[in-house]
Design goal:
mainly beta; Immunoglobulin-like; Jelly Rolls
Protein backbone atom coordinates (compact mmCIF):
# COMPACT_ATOMS: atom_id res chain seq x y z
CA UNK A 1 0.00 0.00 0.00
CA UNK A 2 1.34 3.41 -0.91
CA UNK A 3 0.96 5.60 2.14
CA UNK A 4 -0.02 8.88 0.54
CA UNK A 5 -2.62 10.83 2.53
CA UNK A 6 -3.69 13.96 0.75
CA UNK A 7 -6.38 15.37 3.01
CA UNK A 8 -7.15 14.99 6.69
CA UNK A 9 -9.92 16.32 8.91
CA UNK A 10 -11.73 15.49 12.12
CA UNK A 11 -15.36 15.68 13.17
CA UNK A 12 -17.44 15.66 16.33
CA UNK A 13 -21.12 14.87 16.61
CA UNK A 14 -21.96 18.55 16.39
CA UNK A 15 -19.42 19.96 13.96
CA UNK A 16 -17.07 19.18 11.14
CA UNK A 17 -13.65 20.81 11.30
CA UNK A 18 -11.59 20.77 8.12
CA UNK A 19 -7.80 20.58 7.89
CA UNK A 20 -7.13 22.12 4.51
CA UNK A 21 -4.06 21.10 2.53
CA UNK A 22 -1.91 23.50 0.52
CA UNK A 23 -3.01 23.83 -3.09
CA UNK A 24 -0.28 22.99 -5.56
CA UNK A 25 0.00 24.17 -9.14
CA UNK A 26 -1.66 22.81 -12.22
CA UNK A 27 -0.46 21.91 -15.67
CA UNK A 28 -3.29 23.39 -17.73
CA UNK A 29 -2.29 22.68 -21.32
CA UNK A 30 0.22 20.15 -22.66
CA UNK A 31 1.27 19.46 -26.24
CA UNK A 32 4.17 16.98 -26.50
CA UNK A 33 3.58 16.32 -30.24
CA UNK A 34 3.55 12.64 -29.36
CA UNK A 35 1.74 11.53 -32.50
CA UNK A 36 2.56 9.06 -35.24
CA UNK A 37 5.51 10.33 -37.31
CA UNK A 38 4.52 12.27 -40.43
CA UNK A 39 1.12 13.26 -39.03
CA UNK A 40 -0.10 16.61 -40.33
CA UNK A 41 -0.77 19.14 -37.56
CA UNK A 42 -4.26 20.06 -38.70
CA UNK A 43 -6.92 18.17 -36.75
CA UNK A 44 -4.60 16.81 -34.03
CA UNK A 45 -5.77 17.14 -30.41
CA UNK A 46 -3.24 17.28 -27.54
CA UNK A 47 -3.72 15.22 -24.36
CA UNK A 48 -4.56 18.13 -22.08
CA UNK A 49 -6.22 21.54 -22.14
CA UNK A 50 -7.49 21.86 -25.70
CA UNK A 51 -10.97 23.10 -26.58
CA UNK A 52 -10.70 21.66 -30.09
CA UNK A 53 -8.13 20.53 -32.67
CA UNK A 54 -5.10 22.31 -34.06
CA UNK A 55 -5.52 24.55 -37.12
CA UNK A 56 -2.56 24.88 -39.49
CA UNK A 57 -2.27 28.51 -40.61
CA UNK A 58 0.98 28.13 -42.56
CA UNK A 59 1.28 29.31 -46.12
CA UNK A 60 3.93 29.51 -48.81
CA UNK A 61 6.81 27.20 -49.45
CA UNK A 62 9.95 29.26 -48.98
CA UNK A 63 13.06 28.97 -51.13
CA UNK A 64 14.03 25.58 -49.75
CA UNK A 65 10.68 24.20 -48.64
CA UNK A 66 8.55 21.53 -50.20
CA UNK A 67 5.20 23.21 -49.57
CA UNK A 68 4.01 20.65 -47.04
CA UNK A 69 1.79 21.25 -44.02
CA UNK A 70 3.21 21.60 -40.52
CA UNK A 71 4.14 18.00 -39.78
CA UNK A 72 5.05 15.91 -36.74
CA UNK A 73 8.45 14.21 -37.08
CA UNK A 74 10.38 11.77 -34.94
CA UNK A 75 13.38 13.34 -33.22
CA UNK A 76 16.49 13.24 -35.37
CA UNK A 77 14.58 13.09 -38.66
CA UNK A 78 13.55 15.66 -41.25
CA UNK A 79 10.83 16.02 -43.82
CA UNK A 80 11.18 14.41 -47.22
CA UNK A 81 12.60 16.89 -49.69
CA UNK A 82 12.97 19.71 -47.16
CA UNK A 83 16.72 19.28 -46.77
CA UNK A 84 16.55 20.52 -43.21
CA UNK A 85 17.67 18.83 -40.00
CA UNK A 86 17.02 19.17 -36.29
CA UNK A 87 18.61 16.70 -33.85
CA UNK A 88 15.82 17.31 -31.36
CA UNK A 89 16.16 17.36 -27.59
CA UNK A 90 19.48 15.66 -26.71
CA UNK A 91 19.09 12.08 -25.51
CA UNK A 92 21.36 12.90 -22.57
CA UNK A 93 19.03 15.66 -21.41
CA UNK A 94 16.88 15.11 -18.32
CA UNK A 95 14.15 17.30 -19.83
CA UNK A 96 10.92 15.28 -19.92
CA UNK A 97 9.78 14.96 -23.51
CA UNK A 98 8.31 12.63 -26.09
CA UNK A 99 9.94 11.36 -29.25
CA UNK A 100 8.20 13.76 -31.61
CA UNK A 101 8.39 17.43 -32.57
CA UNK A 102 6.56 19.75 -34.96
CA UNK A 103 8.56 20.55 -38.07
CA UNK A 104 8.37 23.97 -39.65
CA UNK A 105 9.73 24.30 -43.14
CA UNK A 106 12.39 26.78 -44.16
CA UNK A 107 9.84 29.46 -44.97
CA UNK A 108 8.70 32.72 -43.41
CA UNK A 109 5.28 31.49 -42.35
CA UNK A 110 5.12 28.51 -39.97
CA UNK A 111 2.02 29.04 -37.87
CA UNK A 112 -0.89 27.36 -36.15
CA UNK A 113 -3.45 27.91 -33.41
CA UNK A 114 -5.73 25.90 -31.12
CA UNK A 115 -8.71 26.84 -28.90
CA UNK A 116 -8.14 26.40 -25.17
CA UNK A 117 -10.56 24.52 -22.93
CA UNK A 118 -12.87 26.50 -20.64
CA UNK A 119 -11.14 25.16 -17.53
CA UNK A 120 -7.88 26.63 -18.84
CA UNK A 121 -9.22 30.05 -19.80
CA UNK A 122 -10.96 30.30 -16.41
CA UNK A 123 -7.48 30.73 -14.90
CA UNK A 124 -6.73 33.91 -16.90
CA UNK A 125 -8.00 36.33 -14.26
CA UNK A 126 -6.52 39.48 -12.75
CA UNK A 127 -4.06 38.60 -10.01
CA UNK A 128 -3.17 35.23 -11.54
CA UNK A 129 0.30 34.16 -12.65
CA UNK A 130 0.45 31.91 -15.70
CA UNK A 131 3.59 30.21 -17.00
CA UNK A 132 4.09 29.42 -20.70
CA UNK A 133 6.95 27.26 -21.95
CA UNK A 134 8.01 25.68 -25.23
CA UNK A 135 11.05 24.23 -26.94
CA UNK A 136 12.12 25.58 -30.30
CA UNK A 137 15.01 25.30 -32.71
CA UNK A 138 15.93 26.46 -36.17
CA UNK A 139 15.12 24.54 -39.31
CA UNK A 140 18.69 24.35 -40.56
CA UNK A 141 19.80 23.53 -44.07
CA UNK A 142 23.40 22.67 -44.87
CA UNK A 143 25.15 25.65 -46.40
CA UNK A 144 22.44 28.14 -45.45
CA UNK A 145 22.28 30.43 -42.38
CA UNK A 146 19.64 29.91 -39.70
CA UNK A 147 19.40 33.55 -38.60
CA UNK A 148 15.74 33.70 -39.63
CA UNK A 149 14.80 31.39 -36.76
CA UNK A 150 12.01 33.40 -35.11
CA UNK A 151 9.64 31.26 -33.00
CA UNK A 152 6.76 32.79 -31.03
CA UNK A 153 4.10 31.22 -28.80
CA UNK A 154 1.30 33.26 -27.22
CA UNK A 155 -2.09 33.07 -25.56
CA UNK A 156 -4.71 35.63 -26.47
CA UNK A 157 -7.97 36.53 -28.15
CA UNK A 158 -6.96 34.85 -31.40
CA UNK A 159 -4.03 33.63 -33.43
CA UNK A 160 -0.84 35.48 -34.26
CA UNK A 161 -0.91 36.89 -37.77
CA UNK A 162 1.52 38.23 -40.37
CA UNK A 163 4.35 36.11 -41.67
CA UNK A 164 6.62 37.08 -38.75
CA UNK A 165 4.08 37.58 -35.93
CA UNK A 166 4.20 41.37 -36.10
CA UNK A 167 0.43 41.58 -35.56
CA UNK A 168 -2.27 39.43 -33.97
CA UNK A 169 -5.99 38.80 -34.35
CA UNK A 170 -6.50 40.37 -30.91
CA UNK A 171 -4.73 41.07 -27.66
CA UNK A 172 -2.15 38.44 -26.72
CA UNK A 173 0.85 37.81 -24.46
CA UNK A 174 3.79 35.46 -24.89
CA UNK A 175 7.44 35.04 -25.68
CA UNK A 176 9.47 34.66 -28.83
CA UNK A 177 11.68 36.40 -31.34
CA UNK A 178 10.77 39.62 -33.09
CA UNK A 179 10.81 39.92 -36.85
CA UNK A 180 13.52 42.58 -36.91
CA UNK A 181 16.21 40.80 -34.86
CA UNK A 182 18.54 39.21 -37.37
CA UNK A 183 20.35 37.16 -34.71
CA UNK A 184 17.13 35.56 -33.47
CA UNK A 185 17.20 37.11 -29.98
CA UNK A 186 14.42 35.99 -27.57
CA UNK A 187 12.11 38.60 -26.07
CA UNK A 188 9.04 39.01 -23.89
CA UNK A 189 6.20 40.20 -26.13
CA UNK A 190 2.61 41.33 -26.13
CA UNK A 191 0.17 42.38 -28.84
CA UNK A 192 -2.26 45.29 -28.41
CA UNK A 193 -4.01 47.94 -30.51
CA UNK A 194 -2.47 50.77 -28.50
CA UNK A 195 -2.45 53.85 -30.78
CA UNK A 196 -2.85 51.68 -33.87
CA UNK A 197 -6.54 52.05 -34.70
CA UNK A 198 -7.52 48.43 -34.11
CA UNK A 199 -4.36 46.88 -35.58
CA UNK A 200 -2.90 44.62 -32.92
CA UNK A 201 0.83 45.25 -33.23
CA UNK A 202 3.56 43.73 -31.11
CA UNK A 203 5.37 45.38 -28.21
CA UNK A 204 8.81 44.08 -27.30
CA UNK A 205 10.95 43.63 -24.23
CA UNK A 206 14.73 43.83 -24.29
CA UNK A 207 16.64 41.08 -26.10
CA UNK A 208 18.39 37.99 -24.74
CA UNK A 209 21.24 36.01 -26.19
CA UNK A 210 20.05 33.21 -28.42
CA UNK A 211 20.85 29.63 -27.43
CA UNK A 212 21.51 27.11 -30.20
CA UNK A 213 20.66 24.67 -31.56
CA UNK A 214 17.54 24.29 -29.39
CA UNK A 215 16.31 26.32 -26.47
CA UNK A 216 13.61 26.20 -23.82
CA UNK A 217 11.57 29.41 -23.69
CA UNK A 218 9.91 30.09 -20.31
CA UNK A 219 7.55 33.05 -19.96
CA UNK A 220 5.94 34.30 -16.75
CA UNK A 221 2.68 36.18 -17.33
CA UNK A 222 1.35 38.24 -14.42
CA UNK A 223 -2.21 39.41 -15.04
CA UNK A 224 -3.03 42.60 -13.13
CA UNK A 225 -5.98 44.89 -12.62
CA UNK A 226 -4.21 47.77 -14.37
CA UNK A 227 -1.37 46.25 -16.42
CA UNK A 228 0.16 42.89 -17.29
CA UNK A 229 3.85 42.02 -16.85
CA UNK A 230 5.50 39.48 -19.16
CA UNK A 231 8.95 38.08 -18.32
CA UNK A 232 10.86 35.62 -20.51
CA UNK A 233 14.14 33.76 -20.30
CA UNK A 234 15.66 30.83 -22.16
CA UNK A 235 17.49 27.73 -20.94
CA UNK A 236 19.80 25.42 -22.82
CA UNK A 237 18.68 21.83 -23.29
CA UNK A 238 22.18 20.48 -23.79
CA UNK A 239 22.98 19.77 -21.03
CA UNK A 240 19.79 20.31 -19.04
CA UNK A 241 19.70 20.31 -15.24
CA UNK A 242 15.97 20.81 -14.57
CA UNK A 243 16.00 24.52 -13.68
CA UNK A 244 13.94 25.84 -10.80
CA UNK A 245 11.97 29.03 -10.36
CA UNK A 246 14.99 30.38 -8.47
CA UNK A 247 17.07 29.74 -11.59
CA UNK A 248 14.46 31.65 -13.59
CA UNK A 249 14.69 34.59 -11.18
CA UNK A 250 18.51 34.57 -11.33
CA UNK A 251 18.73 34.21 -15.11
CA UNK A 252 19.09 37.03 -17.59
CA UNK A 253 15.55 38.09 -18.38
CA UNK A 254 13.57 40.17 -20.83
CA UNK A 255 10.55 41.95 -19.34
CA UNK A 256 7.80 44.20 -20.61
CA UNK A 257 4.77 45.72 -18.86
CA UNK A 258 1.68 46.60 -20.86
CA UNK A 259 0.61 50.21 -21.13
CA UNK A 260 -3.06 49.30 -21.31
CA UNK A 261 -4.94 46.77 -19.19
CA UNK A 262 -5.50 43.79 -21.49
CA UNK A 263 -8.79 41.89 -21.47
CA UNK A 264 -7.18 38.65 -20.32
CA UNK A 265 -10.45 37.00 -19.26
CA UNK A 266 -11.34 36.82 -22.97
CA UNK A 267 -8.12 35.00 -23.94
CA UNK A 268 -9.16 31.72 -25.49
CA UNK A 269 -6.48 30.70 -28.00
CA UNK A 270 -2.92 29.41 -27.98
CA UNK A 271 -0.95 30.05 -31.14
CA UNK A 272 2.54 29.84 -32.55
CA UNK A 273 3.97 31.85 -35.40
CA UNK A 274 7.35 32.63 -36.84
CA UNK A 275 9.76 31.83 -39.60
CA UNK A 276 11.85 28.71 -40.09
CA UNK A 277 11.20 27.20 -36.67
CA UNK A 278 10.41 23.82 -35.13
CA UNK A 279 8.33 23.44 -31.94
CA UNK A 280 8.09 20.91 -29.12
CA UNK A 281 6.74 20.46 -25.57
CA UNK A 282 4.33 23.41 -25.32
CA UNK A 283 2.99 23.84 -21.79
CA UNK A 284 0.73 26.30 -19.96
CA UNK A 285 0.66 26.04 -16.16
CA UNK A 286 0.10 27.90 -12.91
CA UNK A 287 3.60 27.23 -11.56
CA UNK A 288 7.10 27.25 -13.01
CA UNK A 289 7.68 23.61 -12.12
CA UNK A 290 4.54 22.43 -13.92
CA UNK A 291 5.40 24.53 -16.95
CA UNK A 292 8.94 23.17 -17.20
CA UNK A 293 8.61 19.65 -15.82
CA UNK A 294 4.89 18.80 -16.03
CA UNK A 295 4.12 15.77 -18.17
CA UNK A 296 0.43 15.66 -18.94
CA UNK A 297 -2.95 14.74 -17.58
CA UNK A 298 -1.60 12.81 -14.62
CA UNK A 299 0.31 15.87 -13.46
CA UNK A 300 -2.46 18.28 -14.20
CA UNK A 301 -4.66 17.83 -11.16
CA UNK A 302 -3.77 17.97 -7.48
CA UNK A 303 -4.38 14.84 -5.42
CA UNK A 304 -6.76 16.64 -3.08
CA UNK A 305 -10.35 16.67 -1.87
CA UNK A 306 -12.51 19.23 -3.66
CA UNK A 307 -15.82 18.83 -1.80
CA UNK A 308 -16.92 17.61 1.66
CA UNK A 309 -20.45 17.17 2.98
CA UNK A 310 -21.37 15.76 6.41
CA UNK A 311 -24.91 15.13 7.55
CA UNK A 312 -25.22 14.72 11.32
CA UNK A 313 -28.62 13.14 10.78
CA UNK A 314 -27.78 9.62 9.70
CA UNK A 315 -24.07 10.35 10.16
CA UNK A 316 -23.37 10.33 6.42
CA UNK A 317 -20.11 11.64 5.00
CA UNK A 318 -19.66 12.46 1.27
CA UNK A 319 -16.22 13.20 -0.18
CA UNK A 320 -15.17 14.26 -3.68
CA UNK A 321 -11.52 14.24 -4.73
CA UNK A 322 -9.45 14.68 -7.88
CA UNK A 323 -8.63 11.32 -9.42
CA UNK A 324 -7.57 9.50 -12.56
CA UNK A 325 -9.58 6.70 -14.21
CA UNK A 326 -8.31 3.27 -13.21
CA UNK A 327 -7.02 4.28 -9.80
CA UNK A 328 -8.40 2.81 -6.55
CA UNK A 329 -8.48 4.38 -3.09
CA UNK A 330 -8.68 3.55 0.60
CA UNK A 331 -10.53 5.82 3.06
CA UNK A 332 -9.20 5.54 6.63
CA UNK A 333 -9.91 7.03 10.04
CA UNK A 334 -8.03 7.54 13.27
CA UNK A 335 -8.80 8.88 16.73
CA UNK A 336 -5.24 9.95 17.58
CA UNK A 337 -3.46 10.76 14.27
CA UNK A 338 -1.06 7.88 15.03
CA UNK A 339 -2.96 4.67 14.39
CA UNK A 340 -4.37 4.60 10.84
CA UNK A 341 -5.13 0.89 10.65
CA UNK A 342 -8.94 1.26 10.56
CA UNK A 343 -10.61 1.53 7.15
CA UNK A 344 -14.01 3.01 6.37
CA UNK A 345 -13.71 1.58 2.86
CA UNK A 346 -10.71 -0.34 1.53
CA UNK A 347 -11.46 -0.35 -2.20
CA UNK A 348 -13.05 2.73 -3.80
CA UNK A 349 -12.69 2.78 -7.61
CA UNK A 350 -12.00 6.08 -9.35
CA UNK A 351 -14.89 7.74 -11.11
CA UNK A 352 -15.21 7.89 -14.88
CA UNK A 353 -14.13 11.53 -15.16
CA UNK A 354 -11.55 13.59 -13.31
CA UNK A 355 -13.09 13.29 -9.84
CA UNK A 356 -14.42 10.56 -7.54
CA UNK A 357 -17.38 11.00 -5.18
CA UNK A 358 -18.17 8.48 -2.45
CA UNK A 359 -20.60 8.47 0.49
CA UNK A 360 -19.89 6.63 3.76
CA UNK A 361 -22.18 5.77 6.65
CA UNK A 362 -20.32 6.58 9.88
CA UNK A 363 -22.94 5.25 12.32
CA UNK A 364 -21.08 1.95 12.58
CA UNK A 365 -18.12 3.44 14.42
CA UNK A 366 -19.03 7.01 15.47
CA UNK A 367 -20.40 6.77 18.99
CA UNK A 368 -22.79 8.99 20.90
CA UNK A 369 -20.05 10.70 22.90
CA UNK A 370 -18.45 13.80 21.43
CA UNK A 371 -14.89 13.10 20.34
CA UNK A 372 -12.60 13.76 17.38
CA UNK A 373 -12.31 11.43 14.41
CA UNK A 374 -9.65 11.99 11.75
CA UNK A 375 -10.04 10.88 8.14
CA UNK A 376 -7.77 10.56 5.13
CA UNK A 377 -7.72 9.03 1.66
CA UNK A 378 -4.84 7.03 0.18
CA UNK A 379 -4.11 5.66 -3.26
CA UNK A 380 -3.84 1.89 -3.35
Amino acid sequence: MKNSPFFRFFLTLTSLVLGLGVSRGELLFYEPFDYAPNSALSGLVPPLGAGGPWVDDSSGTGASGSGQAMTVRANGTNGAGSGQTWPGIPSASTFVNSGGYLEGERRNDNSGHIPLAAEVTAKFIDGATIWLSFVSAATTVVGQPDNHHKPNVAIGQGELLDERAQVAAGEAVGGGVAHNTSAGNPRARYWDDQNTGGLYEDFLGNTLRRISPQQLFVTKIEFGADTETITTTVFSLDPFAAPTEADFDDAEQTTITTVNNLDNVSFDTLSFHGSRSNYDEIRVATTFDDAVNGTGAGAARDFTITSIDYSAEGKMLTLTWNSQPGERYVVKYSTDLIDWDADIEDDVPAGIGETTTATFELAGFVGDQERAYYFRVEKQ
